Amino acid sequence: MAVGKVTFTKAEREKLAEVLWLLNWISVVAGMILFGLGLFLKIEIQKWQEVMSDQEILYAPHILITMGLAACGINFLGGKICLDCADTNKFLHWKLVMMPYIICTFFFTSCVLAGALMCYSIRSQLEESLFLGLRNAMRYYKDTDTPGRCYLKRTLDLLQIQFHCCGNTGYRDWFQVQWISDRYLDMTSSAVVDRLRSNVQGKYLVDSVPFSCCSTLSPRPCIQQQISNSSAHFSFDQQSQQLNLWKRGCRQTLLDHYTSIMQSVGLIVLLIWLFELLVLTGVRYLQTAMENVLRLGDPDSESDGWILENSLAETAHSNFNIIKNLGKCYQVDDDLNINIPAATAQQEVPSQQNQIPAAS
Amino acid sequence: MALMLIKFDLKKRVKLAQTVWFMYWFAVMAGVLVFSMGLFFKIELRKRSEFMDNNESHFLPNLLILMGLITCVTNAFGGKICYDSLDPSKFAKWKPMLKNFLVSCMCFNSLLLMTALLCFLMRIPLQFTLTEGLKNGMRYYKDTDTPGRCYMKRTLDLMQIEFRCCGNDNYRDWFEFQWVSNRYLDFSSKEVKDRIGSNVDGQYLMDAVPFSCCNPSSPRPCIQYQMTNNSAHYSYDHHTEDLNVWKRGCRDALLSYYGSMMNTIGALVVLVTILEVAVIIGLQYIHSSLSTLANPEDPESESEGWILEKTVKETFTDIMAKMKAMGKGSKVEEGGEAVVATVS
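The joint structure predicted for all components is written out below.
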């Protein structure tokens, strides 16, 4: 029993071919949109790549870029095929290509779906990556003389200024790393030596934050040093403390930023996937209808189109058998080309009989 | 001898009308462009009006908006005339006013050119407005509790961060203003009293800058306080340290920002003027070719088109003579009335 069987008249077949030609061209535009989305996502991620510890997040935009290019190619070919399919003579050119084309498009459509789902599932991986990346960035903030890390200070400062955030979870994270380089510490001073001795690792830890943590909303000039000591500053009350620095952590802010981008991109990719699925279904119907017309012999008659010739279970069963037989073709018993003595003796007798009448 | 005479047959006239119609549509879009550029410039001026002392002249953006609207309207009208020129009956109703329309278009074009010139010259008054405005901005930086000025600190900080600048000419301008509010100064402390006593106005001046002056590209943590005191910081020389705070003054930064915007707008307006001149020439050819038909009843007859009916010199003397005649005509009328009055 065929799946999704629909009968087409000649006029309906031609209309279907025209509509599919148009839809394929719209799909080419959709493919370009997909490419553009992948490119946009890649640029957005690369902007703050230095504060992400692993680069696996770049798989999603790369898949989208590849799928976008593939969509343009496949749908361009599809448009050409559909235009020719309206006429049975021209369809004969494409007959052998149609089935591989449809299988190819089916795989491509599933890849687009995979890309869309990847956009949605990226959140947990991103959180881990940002946590580690920001922690390392804060650790290497002071290493402006080490090649490979010399721009981390600038990147982290610009990040905190632009996204209105401070530290990993909050501003107190800065109290736990040494963010002032030893080059700018006077090692002869007793204050500095005391601080270095006050912790196990010999780091110069202070309860102060970099200038980029300062909030522009504060009514008073920014207090960066001795933040935990409210008596060190005149009239440093609760409200002043609240407004002084950015309260949010950069990990949460960046996570929210990227999640919202990814969700919008994922939604658009899902819509494009649905559209591609629609086009694929249409092309399949057109293919089966045209093949049935050729089988019936009369180009003007009605023909049936379907998605699958037999039910889903039977198709799966027959495909499975095909794959099994592919594996069997190299087994000895069935191969007729291999020399087996019993068979050759029987073949020699007839050839002798043929030669005797010729000689006489 | 006419200026740039060309012979036209029907086919050429139709082609001319179509081309000029296309050009008119481009000109309408150019008018929309001029309008939107005026709007954009007005919004940008509004955004930073606090640093222009709320005194900035909106004359130029308003003029651009007006010019854009007039351009759209005249070019749409001209396009309609072109479209109708293919049909003799429709064109007949436009014919009488076409000459006046062309003259008014020429005048409008010269106005457009003047607008472009203004765009390039606007920089000079802007410089003075910005100097005053920024000085006031820095003076009111600390007044975050005064209604009307409470956002000055935030706006100035955001501007210094965005434009990568510090102070008016350079960072030392901050040393001349008290930018820390009295609310946050401990008046019982000896140090505060000394500072306030050290100058005539009783202001708390220090050699320090706000955090928004800090340069993120600096290899060392930002030094904002005691900037001129080398011994206050380890391994620091304020003469050679050039990455610590932004070196540029905000006046220069804002001037170059607005200057480049105005130069671009001025260049685009000049291009629009050239396009307008081209469409006027096209319309003049249509007008002259349709008014010199060899056989007025037969639309397929040959005709001639020109830019000016006589040479430039002759046209000029004609205009002068007409203006003199107009001046004399009013004189004669007055004299005639006086005679009539005495007679009756």
